[in-house]
Hints:
By secondary structure, the protein is an alpha/beta fold. The protein has a domain at 11-19 and 35-93 and 164-259: Amidase signature (AS) enzymes. The protein contains eight helices and five strands, in the order αβαβαααβααββα. Strands 2-1-3-5-4 form a five-stranded mixed sheet. The model has no long low-confidence stretch (mean pLDDT 94).
Amino acid sequence: MGVVHALTRSVRDSAALLDATHGEAPGDPYAAPPVVRPYLQEVGRPPGRLRVALQLAPLSGSVVDPECIAAVRNAASLLVDLGHDVEEATLPGDAEVLGVASWTLVATGVCATLRRRAAVLGRPLRENDVEPVTWRAVRHGEGLSALQHADALLAIHQQGRQMAAFHERFDIVLSPTLGQPPVALGPQRMANPDGAAYAAALLRFTPFCNVFNMTGEPSMSVPLHWTDANLPIGVMMSAAFGREDTLFRLASQIEQARPWFGRLPLDLA
Length: 269
């Protein structure tokens, strides 16, 4: 459910960092497939003619800002110009089932982690030790059963299998990275005492990423669109499990066609 990598300004740097950090530690229960060659060597390699699924609506049905839709449509046109096949498609999956599974796994994981920390400190975990959203996860996790946790794991593993079948038709899923342009830190902050408002804001802001958090499929976000206020809007591309190499090849092709390295938001330029 977690994402471990770095924010970079170039495809080269992202590939080099993943070369330095990828792979399982001894005893890890999960691991990605073995790497054929260093990721840095994928940068600049032709990606071939890719089959691209254009996803305009998230599984949740959350409303997506028109500017984010414009960003991904522009990216789709660029991919067509680069020789790829783009087709609008709907991802498999049940948003309600996956939402319950995600919250179950997050809540139990957070609860277990903080309980272990409290044991190290030699005292009970207290509400004011953490932010309100985190405390809500703790309380929810305390009320879940082992069977509910097992059901949640089964649900996301099933989603992974459905996406594996989907990738037999499509090499890449193209979608907005976020559901809104950059926003001020507001209801989606972890310090929000209103759990319902936090959840609603988060769902609207990040409706596309969670599926790939669950399945473990690699994704990249590239700043191919900019608002009138000169703020970047990310476009996300996701590949099948273990196919980071495809993403680095495609990313370097896109970076060459439409460079972004030297572009900064107006207030940072």
